[in-house]
Structures are given as structure tokens and as C-alpha cells.
Amino acid sequence: MSELTRRSAAELAELIASGRTSAVEVAQAHLDRIAAVDGEVNAFLHVDADTTLAQARRVDERRAAGEALGPLAGVPIAHKDVFTTTDMPTTAGSRILEGWRPPYDATITARLRAAGLVIIGKTNMDEFAMGSSTENSAYGPTHNPWDLTRIPGGSSGGSSAAVAAYEAPLATGTDTGGSIRQPAAVTGIVGTKPTYGGSSRYGVIAFASSLDTPGPFARTVLDTALLQEAFSGHDRMDSTSIDRPAPPIVEAARRADVAGLRIGVVRELGGEGYQPGVLNRFNEAVELLESLGAKVTEVSCPHFTYALPAYYLIAPSECSSNLARFDAMRYGLRVGDDGSRSAEEVMALTRAEGFGPEVKRRIMLGTYALSSGYYDAYYGKAQQVRTLIIRDFDTAFEQVDVLVSPTTPTTAFALGERADDPMAMYLADLCTIPSDLAGNAAISVPCGLADEDGLPVGLQVMAPTLADDRLYRVGAAVERALEDRWGGPLLAKAPELVEAGR
Ligand SMILES: NC(=O)C[C@H](N)C(=O)O
């Protein structure tokens, strides 16, 4: 494995800027790594060396011509296959969009292109972002680089696996119920769900529009901040985009200090049902924060217990409406259009064949929850619960600056283990869903390996709306202190595939 693939994005940018390497060389090193390992990991749905190298060449030319480029210019990035890209297909992990080439770039794709980042490929995901393991992808599951028999998390599991396997230093994802933080946690990397409205949804294929939040993945807290900063900011193409200055997250990641910060441990996110090794690492991380000068207290958020059921009414309701656009008429798959059938019949055949079982389950759940006679009892009630959860956060943030919990109740489970048990699958997001419902910001940073299985554990930090900088202060402080203790990054402890550099 080329040494270049082990570098952080910040280091790569610096090497490229100083002329010690080029965007083309860096892109080639990552393409080689993908060729060597992705047959086993299956992190990517689409890789096209010619397109990637042409992008890299263009960045090198722009630099040579003296053009001012962003701080991550020349660095490769993998995009979750839910971000539209004009030069690569976009499927959202679904058969219904197989081979679709979007006519426009997502705002985030476009901003990162303009800043000089090079798209290394499109990553695998649960179909339309519905799942926690990537097993709901129509194109086969992604494997966790720590242990190929385990899940890489989901729905952004292709992105987390690509970054953990050194196939890309940076990746994008979307978090609707935990789809960035949970995959980051189970692959030992960093992932952030920015404040809702802080990152543009324009050109991101919609699942649940009041929850969907694009965000960054990287192996270091600083890289994660640099990426988030590179794509953040108001977008007039997204009606829920926040028109306020973005929080100073890169500065916070560099500051990495928690002295005097008030940290609340959420009483309801821990205890029974959680893997002991996850709780051990979490408790140690909390002690570590205390030793770094943070003031730690326990905080109660009584309505968090209802977050999961509320989410599984709100998200499917919004999905049933959003996915109505896949009607076999405008784009994507069309089945049975042989002149003998009505448009409605073609639509029904296409949707029956084009959508997988989890997507169909959610469309049916959501349609039921929104149907007349049931709307108040289900969708309406869930929205009231959402308000109670927001109030829990408001009350908690009067007492503390950030909240912490484990990111997930368990480490990466085995592929297949929960595939036929949707309820067990949904539990993977127990700790992450509250921040999605409230729209505030949260990060997952590695905090060690579980005693039982030696797999990565994530620490979740949650901050109030538009206080994303606090996530990075805490995340960077934990990262720095733990790396001192471990003598290097957590990923360096990963076995065979990641370490050996095949
Ligand atoms: N999309 C997400 O954020 C993940 C969540 N597991 C879901 O299936 O809805």
C-alpha cells in the first residue's frame, strides 16, 4: 500500500500544496488501494479511474495556473451514492435508479469540486438510506474492514468502510437517524451529523426531509472539521438551509480543549441492553474528559425512550411521500412497458421490482401512519413526542454545554445477524435518533476497543443547534488524549486488511 493512503487529508493537502506530490499521484495511490482491497470490502458502487484522474489533472493544472484553491485541494473524496454527480451514476443503492446519470451536481458535490477535491468514487449504502448495515443495498453488502464477516454500519456503510480501509481519506454521508455516526462508530473513524440546515440537502436524494442531514467522515477529528467547513454554508437552493455564519469548527478542532466545559452524561442512553465492553470504554472516556478539566454531571432526558418509535412513524411517513416520485415515468427503471399495459400498471410493476423489502416496508408503514383516521393517532402523536424530545434537549442544555453517550449500544454485529429482524436492526440507532429529531449537532469519535470482541467503540457528543464547534473541541481533546495513551491512532490497531497494506 502506498504510504500516501495512510496520510490524513490535512497532510495530503499540505504535501500537494508544497509540490512534494500531486493530486494525480494521490488519486492514483487511492485507486490502487481500491483495486487491491475493494473486492473484499465492497465499499464502492462506482469507481472510474479515467474520470477521477482527469479531475486530479485539472486540479494540478488549476494550481499551476496560480488559481486560489481550498485548503483540501487535490485530496480524494468518496461520495455516498445519494449525492448527485454529473460525471458518475447515482443509484441511492436502489435498482430503481440503476444506471441513472443525474443532470446536475448536489450543492455539496459542486462546492467540493470547486474547492479542488477529487471524487474517487461513489459508495455503497442501504437502499435510500434505510438501514443500519448496508445489507439493504441492492448491490450486495459492504464488509467491515476490521472483520470482513461484520457490518460496517449503515446506511452510509460504504463511506465508513472506504475511509477505515484507507481507500479514501474523506467521505460524505447522510444522517437521518444515525447513518453517519453509527457507521463511524463501528469502523473506528470520525463522523459528524451537522446541525440540520447547516449542510445543504440540494441534490441529495431525499428519504425523510425534516431529518436528512449530509455530513463528513474522516479518520481524524481535524479532517472531519476541514471537510464539514468546506461544504457548509447557506444554500438558496435548499429551503431549510440556515442563513447564519457557520460555527468555527476548524478552529475548535485545533483548540482541542475542554477545560471548564460542562458535560452531561445522558442517563437514559446506557445501562441494560448495552454491550458491557461498550459501556466500559464509554465510562473511561467520560473519566478522561473529567481529568482534562471538564465538569461532568448526569442529566436526565426522560422522553428519549420514545425517540425510536417516534422516528419510525415520522421517517417512514416522509419517505412514503418522497419516494412517490419514483414512478417509472421520469427516470430510472421501467418494467413491463410493452404497449399492452396502462401507465398505472407499469408504475406498479416497476415499484414492485425496483424497491427492496425494507423500502416497501417503510412506504407501507408511512402510508398507514398518514392515512385519514390514523393520522392523529400516529403521525400527529409522533410529532408531539418530537416536541417533548426537543424540550428535553433545551432543558439539558441549560445545565450543560454538551451531552455524551455511547454512539451505539453494541459494536459491529455479524452480517446476516439482524437482516431478518427489522426491530433488532432499528435498535442500532437508539442513541443517535434523538439528535436527528431535534435537529441539533452530534459527532462520533473512536474511544477504544470493546473487551469482548476487540471491535471499535464510538463516543457520541451532542451539542445545541449551531454549536457544532463544541463537538470538535470535545472530539479533538478525546482524540489527542487517547492517542497519547495508545501511542497512535485507534485504526493502527486494526487487523490484517487495514494494517497489512495488501
Ligand atoms: N438513515 C438513517 O439515518 C439510518 C436509520 N438506520 C434508518 O434506517 O432510517
From TrEMBL:
Protein origin, superkingdom: Bacteria
EC nos: 6.3.5.7
InterPro entries xref list: Amidase, Amidase_CS, Amidase_dom, AS_sf, GatA
SUPFAM superfamilies tied to this protein: Amidase signature (AS) enzymes (SSF75304)
Assembly, per entry: Heterotrimer of A, B and C subunits.
Protein keywords: ATP-binding, Ligase, Nucleotide-binding, Protein biosynthesis, Transferase
PROSITE patterns tied to this protein: AMIDASES
Pfam family, one: Amidase
Record-annotated active site: 80, 155, 179
Signal peptide: none
Catalytic activity from the UniProt record: L-glutamyl-tRNA(Gln) + L-glutamine + ATP + H2O = L-glutaminyl-tRNA(Gln) + L-glutamate + ADP + phosphate + H(+)
Role description: Allows the formation of correctly charged Gln-tRNA(Gln) through the transamidation of misacylated Glu-tRNA(Gln) in organisms which lack glutaminyl-tRNA synthetase. The reaction takes place in the presence of glutamine and ATP through an activated gamma-phospho-Glu-tRNA(Gln).
HAMAP family the UniProt entry points to: GatA (MF_00120)
Protein name (Swiss-Prot/TrEMBL): Glutamyl-tRNA(Gln) amidotransferase subunit A
Family, as annotated: Belongs to the amidase family. GatA subfamily.
Gene Ontology cellular component list: glutamyl-tRNA(Gln) amidotransferase complex
Organism: Thermomonospora umbrina
Residue span(s) of domain Amidase: 25-471
NCBIfam families (UniProt xref): gatA
GO function term, MF aspect, one: ATP binding
A biological-process GO annotation: translation
